[in-house]
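**User:** Here is a favour to ask of a fellow structure person. Please take any protein you like and set down a full record of it. No explanation is needed for now; the record alone will do.

**Assistant:**
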Amino acid sequence: ATLRTCTIPRYIPIRDVMIPVDGMLVGCDSLETTLLSSLACFYSETCVSALRELF
């Protein structure tokens, strides 16, 4: 089972601004992170552009 109360949204820093990553959560452990996150970011051009700028 997963605990939604044990998750926070995932953010990435870009030019001193924290940008939320659509559909990605950080859980208390790796399994929760994997099960509760989605691939929504990879279907959003804005999110993909932000990730590309980071790397």
